[in-house]
Design brief:
This protein has 551 residues and is of the alpha/beta class. 50% of the residues lie in helices and 11% in strands. The longest helix is centred in the C-terminal third of the chain and has 21 residues, at 477-497. The structure holds glucose-6-phosphate.
């Protein structure tokens, strides 16, 4: 197969891009009154409107050809079949198995892994329910009031985001905290207000060697022991989720409190596994099952829907259209739902860690752009901050907007105002404001002609800024499960198109390795000379200041 940029589908898209790059979406909407019906898809209570994108029927059909050229249907099959598609680590990618609700066995290397998954889930549920129902007692016989998840990256962002998103489903007298930062202020601030007699720790680390997590776990253990003073009762307050049982045991965690992670689950795809223990404690096993079911239903949609009606596929293709033909560098995720305030941070990891790659599956350097910079915030807050650049900046930033149709505790005035912002922003980004419209507005305000002339250019908005909108009824566990799975699969599809492995993360591994080396050099006050002059200078400055402070 020719390399991607020389392929027929790519060249056809390139030519098409040249033809439509100047076309304004206002004209597309004018020409085709059925645009919304044509460019929107429904899944359960979710509607995905992609009509406000710089696409035509032809764009969609050419993008679909690109997907077919990349053998996307085969890749989807291989994903679900447990092929070792994470080829650099020789691993299957089976986070979908963690939420599978079917009865069929899921075979991997001759073993039905669904049996082990279900058995492990029962163990997790059992502990979660004991803690929730106050049956689980700490070393001094008291019930647990606070759970602290110690983990970072994939062992933190997923459960943290889900716990925040599903707050209305959580027990209100059981607090779940997350500690990820190696900066001692994070754990200190968290522990300061907790009682060791009623606190339960989850050390979440697939490897059980990540420096940040291990240091925080050690500090937590010392804090516990300094208050309770009994090593043998540690089992009442510490659990681990890991694939490294040996190290978890060596840390002092009792066998029955060690929950399994498998090497076929990537950290950033692991919230469905025992890494979700904190979530299960917060929302309960039943609601956790709903989360899994929502994801499973979306998996089935992804597996079976024709490409043109397949939401993750269309999300991915539109992303590729901007990334590789409009050459956009960034994309935004903007939830208009306070409960989704960590959604963009989580998606940032899923997207950027998965597709931030420059070597393709053949081991060659790509000659096209892969994953974009993904950023985001709660939409309303963003409006009062970076939306300026979205409206009038020199960069094109396609954005996803997510909003619930109904709120949990509906205060109609608030929700109506929220939704009016959703609709107004997507419309304004698409339409912009012409010079004529801006002129009329200024004239109405009673300004002098000279003032109008000076101000007019600043008041013009070019528009033609793309958004895709996701509306859903209410952010239930089921809907959240589906939304997360949608993004996971979008990232996978883009990885297939770009011919990269979305499931390794050598850049993250590098960070872990570098930190360990330098960490050893910080143990004494000797001058360091082994790095470049900037790194040596910074390390030595730190050492000097540290020793001055000590003396
Ligand atoms: C996720 C990444 C990374 C990982 C963290 C924590 O896909 O691999 O974010 O989750 O580095 O690793 P451990 O769970 O092994 O501590």
């Amino acid at each position: 197969m020719p390399r991607l940029k020389q392929s027929q589908a790519w060249l056809a898209l390139k030519q098409h891009y040249d033809e439509i790059k100047q076309v304004h979406m206002c004209d597309l909407f004018e020409e085709d009154k059925e645009r919304f019906a044509k460019f929107s898809l429904y899944f359960n209570d979710i509607v995905y409107d992609y009509a406000k994108n710089r696409i035509t029927d032809e764009t969609v059909s050419l993008l679909l050809k690109l997907a077919e050229q990349a053998a996307l249907p085969d890749w989807i099959e291989r994903l679900f079949a447990g092929d070792a598609i994470n080829h650099t680590e020789h691993r299957a990618v089976l986070h979908t198995a963690l939420r599978d609700q079917g009865d069929a066995p899921i075979m991997l290397d001759g073993v039905d892994i669904s049996v082990e998954i279900k058995a492990e889930r029962v163990r997790v549920k059992c502990l979660a329910e004991k803690i929730r129902s106050r049956v689980w007692r700490g070393a001094t016989g008291q019930a647990i009031t606070d759970v602290v998840n110690i983990g970072i990256g994939g062992s933190n962002l997923g459960p943290l985001m889900v716990n925040e998103a599903l707050k209305p489903y959580s027990l209100h007298d059981l607090n779940v905290h997350f500690v990820s930062n190696i900066d001692e202020n994070h754990i200190n601030e968290t522990l300061e207000y907790l009682d060791p007699k009623t606190t339960f720790f989850i050390v979440a680390s697939k490897s059980f060697t990540t420096q940040d997590t291990m240091l925080n776990a050690e500090t937590a253990r010392q804090w516990y022991l300094s208050h309770i003073g009994s090593d043998e009762k540690i089992g009442r307050h510490f659990s681990a989720v890991t694939s490294n049982t040996k190290l978890a045991k060596a840390f002092g965690i009792a066998d029955e409190n060690i929950f399994k992670m498998w090497d076929w689950v990537g950290g950033r795809y692991s919230l469905w596994s025992a890494i979700g223990l904190s979530t299960m404690i917060a929302i309960g096993a039943e609601q956790f099952d709903e989360l899994l079911e929502g994801a499973y239903e979306l998996d089935m949609h992804f597996k079976t829907a024709p490409l043109a009606q397949n939401i993750p596929v269309m999300m991915a293709l539109i992303g590729v259209w901007y990334n590789n033909f409009f050459k956009v560098q960034a994309t935004a995720v903007l939830p208009y739902d306070q409960y989704l305030h960590r959604f963009a941070a989580y998606m940032q990891q899923v997207d950027m860690e998965s597709n931030g790659k420059y070597i393709d599956r053949n081991g060659e350097i790509v000659n096209y752009q892969t994953g974009p910079v993904l950023f985001g915030e709660i939409g309303i807050s963003g409006q009062h901050a970076f939306f300026q650049l979205l409206h009038q900046g020199t960069k094109l930033v396609p954005a996803d907007i997510l909003a619930p149709l109904f709120s949990y505790r509906c205060i109609a005035r608030h929700h109506r105002a929220l939704m009016s912002n959703v609709f107004a922003q997507t419309e304004a980004l698409m339409r912009g404001k012409t010079e004529q419209q801006a002129l009329e507005e200024l004239q109405k305000s009673g300004m002098s002609e000279a003032e109008i002339e000076a101000l007019l250019p600043y008041k013009v908005f070019p528009g033609n800024r793309p958004t895709s909108t996701f509306l859903f009824d209410t952010l239930t566990p089921r809907t959240l499960g589906s939304l997360i799975a949608m993004y996971e699969h979008k990232v996978f599809v883009q990885g297939v198109i770009w011919n990269i492995n979305s499931f390794d993360q050598w850049g993250v591994e590098l960070g872990k390795q570098l930190a360990t080396t330098i960490s050893d050099e910080l143990n004494d006050d000797d001058e360091v000379t082994t790095h470049d002059s900037s790194t040596n200078g910074l390390v030595n400055y730190y050492k000097q200041r540290r020793s001055l402070k000590r003396s």
